[in-house]
């Protein structure tokens, strides 16, 4: 009797488990970033954690600022009849047609990290880059760190990419009326090259630069190494920018960076995939999820603990 009961229970478990396994879905997580950029390891970790927690499959890919490559990855996901796609926007307007194609194929397509309101995505998860840029510039002005006639240096990994273009829009709205000038320079997505280019620029323009705005996580997270190499003391040149890496939380704690922007990288990927899954199940998201907080030394420890897994 006991053996029969065991067989019956095992049979019921098998019957329940087989449909559950059959319901697993396949999603595509597509980034304009590069795997060498520390912050993208956190975005990727959020996607992997979501796959583990839900039992769904997530195909991930990085495209290192190559717009054509990212477009092809989205086309491949559509052709594969993905259950959902979550993607960054590599350049403004670059995914308008692909978003239409995905929607026409009834494939949810969620935009994350870098928004493009002109594309018909199902939803957006991430920060408002125009607002972030405005806040960085306003922070420098309000704190008396820059004034009329000053020059601000703004390094970025990929000039022309969505995030930098939108951030500059916000910065310009503050610096333009204030009579503050700036220059954007290319740093690339290679860590060693970033440090080399930033060090060369600062060596040549140290006397001119009154403040720095890091338009990406890789450049902001390289400030300490650049300052140490060039001989700039912590706090000598005010710095604001992105703060989604342990490099930057430590820079804020040690005085190299005045304030940094948090965007919840793990949570951004996790929520974006959750919205895609919800839409794939027939519940359309009627909202965006905006993340972000500007932190200084007094709260940097909170984000340092999150990123270090403590």
From TrEMBL:
Which CDD domains does UniProt cross-reference here?
A: PBP1_ABC_sugar_binding-like
Subcellular localization, per the record? Periplasm
Q: Cite the entry's keywords alphabetically.
A: Signal
**Origin, by domain of life?**
Bacteria
Instruction: Provide the leader sequence positions.
Output: 1-22
| Presence of keyword Signal | yes
Q: Does the keyword Iron apply?
A: no
Q: Which Pfam families match?
A: Peripla_BP_4
Annotated InterPro entries: Bact_Solute-Bind_Prot2, Peripla_BP_I, SBP_2_dom
Periplasmic binding protein domain location, by residue? Answer: 37-282
- Which PANTHER family does the entry link to? ABC TRANSPORTER PERIPLASMIC-BINDING PROTEIN YPHF, D-XYLOSE-BINDING PERIPLASMIC PROTEIN
Protein family membership: Belongs to the bacterial solute-binding protein 2 family.
Return the protein name: Substrate-binding domain-containing protein
- Which species expresses this protein natively? Mesorhizobium humile
């Amino acid at each position: 009797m006991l053996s029969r009961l065991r067989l019956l229970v095992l049979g019921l478990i098998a019957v329940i488990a087989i449909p559950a396994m059959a319901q697993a879905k396949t999603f595509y997580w597509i980034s304009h970033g590069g795997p060498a950029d520390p912050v993208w390891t956190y975005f990727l970790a959020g996607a992997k954690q979501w796959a583990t927690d839900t039992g769904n499959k997530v195909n991930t890919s990085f495209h290192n600022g190559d717009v054509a490559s990212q477009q092809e990855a989205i086309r491949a996901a559509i052709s594969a009849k993905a259950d959902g796609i979550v993607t960054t926007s590599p350049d403004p307007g670059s995914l308008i047609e692909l978003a239409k194609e995905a929607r026409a194929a009834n494939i949810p397509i969620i935009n994350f990290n870098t928004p493009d309101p002109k594309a018909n995505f199902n939803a957006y998860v991430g920060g408002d880059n125009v607002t972030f840029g405005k806040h960085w510039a306003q922070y420098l002005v309000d704190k008396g760190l820059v004034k009329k006639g000053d020059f601000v240096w703004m390094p970025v990994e990929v000039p022309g990419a969505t995030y930098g273009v939108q951030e500059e829009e916000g910065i310009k709205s503050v610096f333009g009326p204030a009579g503050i000038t700036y220059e954007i320079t290319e740093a690339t997505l290679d860590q060693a090259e970033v440090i080399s280019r930033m060090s060369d620029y600062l060596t040549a323009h140290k006397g001119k630069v009154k403040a720095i705005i890091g338009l990406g996580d890789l450049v902001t997270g390289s400030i300490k190494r650049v300052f140490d190499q060039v001989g700039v003391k912590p706090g000598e040149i005010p710095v604001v920018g992105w703060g989604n890496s342990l490099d930057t939380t430590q820079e804020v704690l040690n005085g190299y960076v005045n304030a940094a922007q948090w965007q919840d990288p793990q949570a951004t990927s996790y929520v974006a995939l959750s919205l895609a899954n919800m839409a794939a199940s027939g519940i359309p998201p009627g909202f965006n999820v905006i993340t972000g907080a500007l932190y200084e030394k007094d709260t940097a420890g909170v984000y340092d603990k999150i990123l270090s897994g403590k």
